[in-house]
């Protein structure tokens, strides 16, 4: 297939629209089901690169959940404990492959943002992964292939219209890439930078130079995620998965705050009081996710108030106090953080450490680098300067 006609472009009024290869070659993808759109393919190609890079760097199956050309979540295939299964709506007795674990983690990182996501898998989609996807609200998926039974499960989604794309895992684009903006053509070398411990984590500039193997892994995950996240961007990672991604903010500290709030929400979802919320059995997973997000937020009365709680719960939940939340978050440690460009002020470090960050990687190069290093040293945070900016637009 040399081209694929799209219903419309970014918006319904943007017609005609298509994808094709400028060199006349066949497209590297096959549409197995549905009719993906313009934004679907932007998500598909960005997310596929991300999971491919994760698999190459860390040797484990990887998955990503994309919305509006940035990852809501990404992860590698580490096992889920009972708490994560409860948080991610995975049955205690569900048999999970490493790929299924990667997807559950990617989807579970920020379930509010992942609603209606585009999924990318590094490996051939198996039945265990398809069964998880079957019960999530999603627009489509890209993978290097699909087991026959997994494909049948996925084809049953959205009344048979679920978008399923297979990509040639051997495909490599040309070294130069072009785009057109306002009738002007841009050309640049493709961002094919390889991210690894050996290339990114050797220059530790803080007094604390102790970064565990697990944190090194998580820092590499953060950088690979940032490589495909709309800039400015900051990414918090723990236990092999993103827990907060701040994308497309004009201010670096706003990225840190946004991603940090998402990371804090992920941590608070571990609390027994949250896991034990008495939901009515007829409440769907998306509505549960929304209620949890409101419950742990600043206006819990919107779901547990005297006049509304019965719409969601079998009994009225007790509030989660600010003191309870702060006490829980104060116990968090071992979080890794990556930034796609230098931190210009120490306020980013101050915010990050309140979310349990103990290891950071960032390019460096600010005139205030020493202030940022001094702030890390004040809290015993280890920081590597990789020297490489990872803007993505």
Automatic annotation (TrEMBL):
<dbReference type="GO" id="GO:0006189">
    <property type="term" value="P:'de novo' IMP biosynthetic process"/>
</dbReference>
<dbReference type="InterPro" id="IPR016193">
    <property type="entry name" value="Cytidine_deaminase-like"/>
</dbReference>
<dbReference type="GO" id="GO:0005829">
    <property type="term" value="C:cytosol"/>
</dbReference>
<protein>
    <submittedName>
        <fullName>Phosphoribosylaminoimidazolecarboxamide formyltransferase</fullName>
        <ecNumber>2.1.2.3</ecNumber>
    </submittedName>
</protein>
<dbReference type="InterPro" id="IPR024051">
    <property type="entry name" value="AICAR_Tfase_dup_dom_sf"/>
</dbReference>
<dbReference type="InterPro" id="IPR002695">
    <property type="entry name" value="PurH-like"/>
</dbReference>
<dbReference type="Pfam" id="PF01808">
    <property type="entry name" value="AICARFT_IMPCHas"/>
</dbReference>
<dbReference type="GO" id="GO:0004643">
    <property type="term" value="F:phosphoribosylaminoimidazolecarboxamide formyltransferase activity"/>
</dbReference>
<dbReference type="GO" id="GO:0003937">
    <property type="term" value="F:IMP cyclohydrolase activity"/>
</dbReference>
<dbReference type="InterPro" id="IPR024050">
    <property type="entry name" value="AICAR_Tfase_insert_dom_sf"/>
</dbReference>
<keyword id="KW-0808">Transferase</keyword>
């Amino acid at each position: 297939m040399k081209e694929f006609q799209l219903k419309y472009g970014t918006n319904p009024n943007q017609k005609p629209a298509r994808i094709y290869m400028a060199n006349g070659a066949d497209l590297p993808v096959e549409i197995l089901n549905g009719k993906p759109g313009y934004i679907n393919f932007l998500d598909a190609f960005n997310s596929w690169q991300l999971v491919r890079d994760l698999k190459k760097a860390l040797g484990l199956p990887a998955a990503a959940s994309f919305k509006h050309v940035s990852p809501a979540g990404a992860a590698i295939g580490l096992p889920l404990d009972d708490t994560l299964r409860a948080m991610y709506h995975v049955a205690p007795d569900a048999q999970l492959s490493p790929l299924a674990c990667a997807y559950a983690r990617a989807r579970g990182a920020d379930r509010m943002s992942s609603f209606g996501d585009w999924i990318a898998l590094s490996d051939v989609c198996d039945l265990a992964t398809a069964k998880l996807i079957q019960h999530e609200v999603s627009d489509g998926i890209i993978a290097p292939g699909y087991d026959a039974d997994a494909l049948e499960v996925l084809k049953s989604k959205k009344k048979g219209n679920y978008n399923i794309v297979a990509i040639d895992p051997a495909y490599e684009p040309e070294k130069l890439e072009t785009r057109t903006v306002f009738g002007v053509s841009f050309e640049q070398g493709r961002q094919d930078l390889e991210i690894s411990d050996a290339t990114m984590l050797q220059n530790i500039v803080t007094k604390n130079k102790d970064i565990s193997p697990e944190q090194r892994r998580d820092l590499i995950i953060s950088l690979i995620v940032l490589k495909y996240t709309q800039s400015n961007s900051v990414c918090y990672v723990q236990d092999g998965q993103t827990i907060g991604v701040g994308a497309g903010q004009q201010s670096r500290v706003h990225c840190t705050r946004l991603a940090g709030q998402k990371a804090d929400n992920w941590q608070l979802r571990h609390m027994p009081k949250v896991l034990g919320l008495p939901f009515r059995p007829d409440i769907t997973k998306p509505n549960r996710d929304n209620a949890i997000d409101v419950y742990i937020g600043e206006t819990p009365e919107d779901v547990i108030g005297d006049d509304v709680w019965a719409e969601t719960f079998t009994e009225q939940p007790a509030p989660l106090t600010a003191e309870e939340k702060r006490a829980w978050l104060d116990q968090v440690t071992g979080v890794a953080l990556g930034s796609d460009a230098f931190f210009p002020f120490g306020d980013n470090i101050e915010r990050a450490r309140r979310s349990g960050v103990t290891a950071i990687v960032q390019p460096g190069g600010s005139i205030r680098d020493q202030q940022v290093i001094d702030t890390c040293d004040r809290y015993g945070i280890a920081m590597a300067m990789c020297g490489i900016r990872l803007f993505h637009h």
